Records
---
Amino acid sequence: MELWFEESTPEGWGLKVRLERTLESVQSQFQRIDLYQTSGMGKLLVIDGKVQLCELDEFTYHEMLAHVPLLCHPAPRRVMVVGGGDGGTVREVLAHPSVERAVLVEIDPEVVRVCREHLPTVSGRLSDPRVEIVAADAAEYMRTARDFDAIVVDSSDPVGPSEVLFSGEFYSDLRQALTPQGVMAMQSGSPFFYLDQIVGAVRGLKEQFRHVRPLIVPVPTYPSGTWSLVAASLGEDLGLGVEELVRRYRERGLRTRWYSPQMHLASLALPPFLEQAL
Amino acid sequence: MELWFEESTPEGWGLKVRLERTLESVQSQFQRIDLYQTSGMGKLLVIDGKVQLCELDEFTYHEMLAHVPLLCHPAPRRVMVVGGGDGGTVREVLAHPSVERAVLVEIDPEVVRVCREHLPTVSGRLSDPRVEIVAADAAEYMRTARDFDAIVVDSSDPVGPSEVLFSGEFYSDLRQALTPQGVMAMQSGSPFFYLDQIVGAVRGLKEQFRHVRPLIVPVPTYPSGTWSLVAASLGEDLGLGVEELVRRYRERGLRTRWYSPQMHLASLALPPFLEQAL
């Protein structure tokens, strides 16, 4: 008998992943957390029935979410990661040598524990001495946070507890928490299924930021297989020249599988149907 | 009770699409053809259990497959489409006003019949007087074909009848069938699952063509949700300057939802893991 994980959208698109076995299944104070060993795609983290990451493809999402904003800052020192208790975004953030402090604000310590135990390829850098893990509600934490050079919002979708992370009030608090050259990025759903979500995020961020750019990244295990992020900056343009991006990429000694300065700029190109919606 | 179409890969990634009903299910001389009405994604064409197209997302694939090569030819007049009996690629080819003749070489007339009957949004332009439909084996047809300005290979995957369309001999015949400024494009599988297929196509085409470029396009209903194409040209560079592409795009009066001159160039950017494999 074969065991498959299944997730589907209201539009009737569904994902299946063949499993070998369940590594952990726990109900935390906040949500249901399942960690599976798949049969051909590495390990799979699922929260409340929705794929959070799969070892096969997590690099596309984490690399773009962290490196697009961080490379548009000349020398990010203090970085906040909202959500992302799996540690994948923190791993990419720490690859920038200028980073002195990475504060992970994750409401659910159980996510961190499960990923530390079972997902070392993703969570391994959480033990870096530069990392501080804060178990707090990110919306509350953001109200009084200050002096961050970059904030990366690696949240779940805007339903339930994460809904507030897609509000105008949160965007305003986030901007207040940034330094004058500050940058940010957030996930904003599938361009094929959740166009409204991208449009909403871009509009909300434009009220706070000088530069706001949506970008597209493939994630085979997210609904529709293609995801969008929105990046915003108070200082530098997000479509920085390719020469400067290449210089910074090399100077920082980054090693990536999906991100490159060319992919950074390519991901900012938008298909006409999305441009029109914006 | 809900009815779902399901397709999965050997790696254990699977796609599900919720169905309303079966519109047609027929065994032709060559293959099994199923046409479904989905509940939220339009109609779905399946051949031998594999998704060929879905109305939700067919535009990304058909637009890139046709417009990337055709816009790298100054004035394509005679165009061949290999496979693609659904008519989606022909629809995009005919949008170029210089096209005088579009020859569709589809081995299975049943695919054409089913799509004409049930998929007018895709097959509608097959009745254009410039279209000639040839029911033939494309590998055989290619051996004596001559004087095509562009050839678009819209084949199924390289297993069974389509395997020969991914061979060195076919690439050589294809080049012989092209005019001196000739261009071509073909599909080459998922970069996440079938890296060998892209590498093989690029190597094979490089023996015949001056310019060979793989490109990436999201297709939510294909395995992994992201697909690759390879384009090749005997004349112009496939990464033509953006100004020239914009000029041609406007001059030809194209209207597209995924393709744009900027998306054309963006799709040529390759992630490091794919660059290294090449």
---
Amino acid sequence: MESKRTAILFIMDGLGDRPVPDLNGKTPLEFANTPTFDMLVSQGQSGLMDVIGPGITPGSDAAHLALFGYDPYENYPGRGPLEAQGAGLSTKPGDVAFRSNFATVDENFIVQDRRAGREISSEEGEILQHALDGLEIEDVLVRFIHTVEHRGALVLEGPGLSPRITDVDPHETGKRVLECKPVVPEAEKTARIVNKLIQLSNEKWNALDMNKKRIERGLPPANVILLRGQGQHMDSPTLFERYGIKCAVIAGGALYIGTAKYVGMEHVLVEGQTGTIDTNFDNIASKVIDSVENYDYIFVHIKATDNASHDHDVNQKVLAIERSDQMIGKIIEAVGDRIVIAISGDHSTPVTIGEHTCDPVPIILWGTNIRPDKTITFCELESSIGGLGTIRGHDVLPLLLGYSGQIEKFGA
Amino acid sequence: MESKRTAILFIMDGLGDRPVPDLNGKTPLEFANTPTFDMLVSQGQSGLMDVIGPGITPGSDAAHLALFGYDPYENYPGRGPLEAQGAGLSTKPGDVAFRSNFATVDENFIVQDRRAGREISSEEGEILQHALDGLEIEDVLVRFIHTVEHRGALVLEGPGLSPRITDVDPHETGKRVLECKPVVPEAEKTARIVNKLIQLSNEKWNALDMNKKRIERGLPPANVILLRGQGQHMDSPTLFERYGIKCAVIAGGALYIGTAKYVGMEHVLVEGQTGTIDTNFDNIASKVIDSVENYDYIFVHIKATDNASHDHDVNQKVLAIERSDQMIGKIIEAVGDRIVIAISGDHSTPVTIGEHTCDPVPIILWGTNIRPDKTITFCELESSIGGLGTIRGHDVLPLLLGYSGQIEKFGA
């Protein structure tokens, strides 16, 4: 068997791109100065990846599930459980989770402000959280957490729940909060509980001094909860259950942390790690190096590439790629002989488009035990003749575990 | 439709490799002098193959099932039926088969020697075989064959059998033979029969004069059967049932013959064919040439490449590749216009590692009707830009049958 190493997946969010006129027709990755990536490609292998499938534009959450080895068509639980995990609310199979807004309604539940003025302080959020968290409705426990501004996450925990219910948010002011209805008969109980919960949030929050003070200050009271993104934690085995591996996530954004925790990874906090170009790349490198001996698999997420793409900011995207290259260079220098790595994106976000597209993303697979192919630089064009060929997102985990000696042989 | 030819699959076991320092960083296949392979690649196509899937290290048995066109995740029966077929015991759907050892136990079934001294002559083996073969336990027929030394194969034939039972071999001397237990309720009958069988083997074999003579000569008696590798012949259609093709296997090793017979191939015996470098390559070539008119599909297995790899013997591996090249050259010269061939390995066994690994294997597809790609030599590196791309093991059979005019058009 292959000797045991730690597998590391580096994702630069939205990495894939298209030729940019301002870069003389090069893509940001092709244009960027990336000595580490080019060294890794010339020593190892590259290829292209359809993260979900050819022609399918990946959402970030489904893309990451695929990259963690799960078929998203079978295992995508909806946004709610992934956001809840990212917000710090654990979920388990069967739980139904939501993203939530604080909103303002009048006495007839007509929406006055879908975000209750947006500015909710963390002190106010904590008061609102405590008034709702821990409630029991029938045999269902309500768990609620405030995150930032008007946002939060909510989990329903109990028997016989279903996410197949209609939305309550009318998505417009001047309209009444919608009654939650079951889409399938099995969801009747969940719909009933959601309707009671909305009623209760209004009663409990209207009674808070905090809201009376907001009204005195001319601010809209946060007096109802609006839920969306409902999803159910599915009966998917964790990565530990599937492979016996201990996994870490090193990421700044809540959704990525949440998706990683959903499949059983531990969040390793890095001081100064954010979802922007100002993230502390040096601290991330140090933490990855330190974590190699403690984990079998490490997922490292850099968000800055995607932010730049959405902002059509080509220089910022090039910069984010170059800083990632330097960060990975430090890691290779320190622990290169003890790791097998894949470097890629979760989807393409061309700076000329500013949105996710279905273009496949380039990928590098490198380790001192991985034989070379004929490619020598890392970019979309060169990767199209790479030795990996065109793979799917869910191939990445087996490739990393196979070359790091962490999957049993199939058969004898 | 394509004109009818005979499809031939040549497997050099463990062919795939990694750069070897002693070969100036070339792989054995890249270093070897292979004029035939290079001619075939430049006229035809090459590619890489993940025999089971990306990152998955193939065992030999599962790998060959894939190469014969079967999804191993759906069709892998375990080692028992494949070994039984290789030993000459036919199996059919429903049968449960085992590999077996003759062992020595005391009167309390405490294991004294797991191999009964290992040296069991073929005369002794035959006596032991006849004392067990043909027994009936309840409505189940026991079929047993001695192979070499202490080894044999055993088949249970009857209704309601299951392979989901625990092992009986304690794998240590000084320990009692374990009671066989069902892992699922459906396996209760099988476990009961195995326990009775072990008891009966002890009674019948203790009573043999042969064993009394062994004791007189100071040798441990072969007085119990230990079973392992249990598996059930699944309800998989044979290649004839799937495609109406008549198939032959030309191989030296029992496991490869057995796996081929499991899917319905006939074993064509070649004088002097062995599992080592001393196998008679000329006789194999002659037999393949003779068989082209009698079979629609021929599977030819060369084991020497893998033995050399497990022994870390790079020169021997290069030699085995070069002799295979010459052998295939003779076949092309004689019947090249009547065949379509694929040449590959069942998995990688890098000589530097000495074990199976997950690296994809290079493959050639050639026939006078197959158009060329851009590749001109046969090796792992060149194959990474081949026209076949990266295929799976179970793609090989359809490719061979498609180009040899043996699969019907899909649709009208």
